[in-house]
Amino acid sequence: MKLTAKLSRPIRDVGTIKRLLTGAEAEAHAQGESLAGAEHLLLAALELPDGTARRAFERVGAAPDDLRSAIATQHAEALRAIGIEPVSDELLDAELGTGAPAGTGPLRTGASAQTAFRAAVDLAKADGPSPLLGAHVVAAVAQIEHGTAARTLSGMGIDRDALATAAREELALRRT
Amino acid sequence: MAALTRIPPPDEPSAALAAVVALRRLADRLERAAVARAIQEGWTWAQVAEALGVTRQAAHKRHAGRRG
User: Fold this and answer.
1) What are the pLDDT digits (tens) for A47-97?
2) 3-state SS string over chain B?
3) pTM for this model (two decimals)
4) Using an 8 Å Cβ cutoff, are A29 and B36 in contact?
5) Cα–Cα distance between B29 and A172 in angstroms, integer?
6) CA–CA distance from A44 to each of A51, A82, A133, A137, A147 (Å)?
7) What is the mean pLDDT of chain A?
8) Nearest by CB to A75, which of B25, B62, B65?
């Protein structure tokens, strides 16, 4: 029935969407940031149970578990490039105490996370349509040319085009 | 923290922009930690807001909402 067919995609993806957005917000919050960026969305995608995001990373020889620290490293390097020796996150927490406990406020995603999320959803729609999977998020984030996510991936020695291809290969496997 | 000693050359705007992002992130972290510490030590939201140069409503909305 037409109505059921129209509803089935959004309903099917609700769990994934919730994991992605709350996961991204939690990752941003854990790093003391008030807005989630595409890099945090990518962290959340790597935790999705479908496993396609992790496998896309592994395909290009990258360690998914290295992403979190690579983000912090990228920011530290950016500060060093202008002559500022960054205060370590641990020192900040120790000196001033950690911030408020995790999220009782509304989800706060920034522009890069919103753009990447929409692009991932569009990729899933174009893909069959396919349920929204981690590899759709990886493919979307890999297309971002500037900003923290792009610089972090580059800092990890990951070629963005290769990562996007790897994500598509993981998605193709799901269709066979 | 050392003072700003150099700015990337004009042909590297991406490095300068990345530094802006990193500074904002650092400012964000520092603000949250400093506000949390101030409130713990009995500062009022009005005092915190005054120190930050924002309205009490803005400070409360930005920080108090997450405290549950």
Assistant:
1) 999 999 999 999 999 999 999 999 999 999 999 988 888 877 666 666 655
2) CCCCCCCCCCCCHHHHHHHHHHHHHHHHHHHHHHHHHHHHCCCCHHHHHHHHCCCHHHHHHHHHHHHC
3) 0.84
4) no
5) 41
6) 11, 30, 11, 9, 18
7) 88
8) B25
Residue B11 has pLDDT above 60, yes or no: no
Report CB contact under 8 Å: A79, B23.
yes
By the CB < 8 Å criterion, does A90 face chain B? no
The two structure tokens encoding residue A94: 């120790």
DSSP class of residue A109?
Answer: B
Contact criterion met (CB < 8 Å) for B36 and A98: yes
As a whole number of angstroms, the distance between CA A3 and CA A24 comes to 31
Q: Is A128 part of the contact surface with chain B (CB cutoff 8 Å)? A: no
Q: Are A53 and A158 in contact (CB under 8 A)?
A: no
User: Hey, is A87 helix, strand or coil?
Assistant: coil
Gap between the Cα atoms of B59 and A63, Å rounded? 39
Please give the ipTM for the structure prediction.
0.80
Whether B1 and A105 lie within 8 Å, measured CB to CB = no
User: Per-residue pLDDT tens for B19-57?
Assistant: 999 999 888 888 888 998 999 999 999 999 999 999 999
The answer, for A31 touching chain B at a CB cutoff of 8 Å, is yes
- Distance between CA atoms of residues A40 and A144, nearest Å: 14
Single out the residue of A163, A175, A146, A176 nearest to residue A46, CA to CA: A163
First to last CA, chain B: 33
How close, in Å, is residue A22 to chain B by CA atoms?
14
